[in-house]
Give the backbone structure.
Amino acid sequence: MATGARVGRPVLLFLVPLWCASCAGLARNDQGVLQPQTVSGPCQVKKFFLLSLTSVPTEVTVGNTGQACTFTLLNPALQIALNAALVTGRPAHGQATATLITGRRQAEISYVPQPGYAGSDSFSITLEPNAVGVTFAVTMQPTPPPS
């Protein structure tokens, strides 16, 4: 039995670096667990991990040009079915919407700042099932953020 234990240890030690290497690959994969999947409009959305947590914070920088900042959450290839995408914390200085798209496998979030406003705002969305929440801290600039 002692010999079998020795054989098992090198295998475990060999698998740990492979597991860690695959984790590093996830951090660079925009189509995997990193969010958002796509971003359009005069804005930047900081990448974040949307895992099985109850609330995930992230940051958005928006140029107040009158255009919407729109982004998608979840990769449709993950085969996750959503029941709802809800704006559960309304912004004070703009309008946020959340819609299910891609056969209920993605959520599209849109934020339009109040005309002429520059400063801070925030809003929250909740994805159902499982009530996974995302809180967006928004910073509005009078012009689009640098790319």
About this structure: The radius of gyration is 20 Å. Residues 1-30 form one domain.
